[in-house]
Amino acid sequence: MKATEVPEISGAYLFEPTPHADERGFFCRTFDADVVRSVGLDPAAFVQDSVSRSARGVLRGLHLRSGAGEAKLVRCSYGEIFDVVVDLRPDSPTYLGRAFFELSGETQATVYVPAGCAHGFQSLTETSDVSYRIDRPHDPAEDVTIAFDDPDLAVPWPLPAASMSARDRKAPSLAEVLKRREG
């Protein structure tokens, strides 16, 4: 497994496993504490694992947590997704930077999303399963959502949004979210 820094988002990493394939399929390590530690992250900091299943075109995000934020490892374990990370940390050298990834069950690559960054994805296949390893227990009172189609972010979603939660559909603009954070 190798770790590569994501240049558009300070402190973000892409972890790419080395699959061992044969006629049966493949086997690969999707989490390695030593590799995580090698880039300065504490593997013991992750306290919760979650999974979501989405149909083609489903869009989830853009989400982040208020307060101390939430760091997470995101991996598409089945299917394929278009994954988005936006840096919303005012003191970051990559503030408002965006990074896009195609994550899939074929590659099993994992993106590390630092606390203070927004995250979202769109399912590109009929079924996609996304696994999250999160560093804080979920507190719905800290949920923040930003409009997926915010013109200031201009995320190039590859498909029309087939379905999304009511919360995501009614999400405020990036400017509104930033104004609330300042006030």
TrEMBL record:
Pfam families cross-referenced by the UniProt entry: dTDP_sugar_isom
Keywords assigned by UniProt, alphabetized: Isomerase
Gene3D superfamilies per record: Jelly Rolls (2.60.120.10)
InterPro entries per the UniProt record, alphabetical: RmlC-like, RmlC-like_jellyroll, RmlC_Cupin_sf
UniProt entry tagged with the keyword Manganese: no
Residues making up the signal peptide according to the UniProt record: none
Protein family according to the UniProt entry: Belongs to the dTDP-4-dehydrorhamnose 3,5-epimerase family.
Name of the protein in question: dTDP-4-dehydrorhamnose 3,5-epimerase family protein
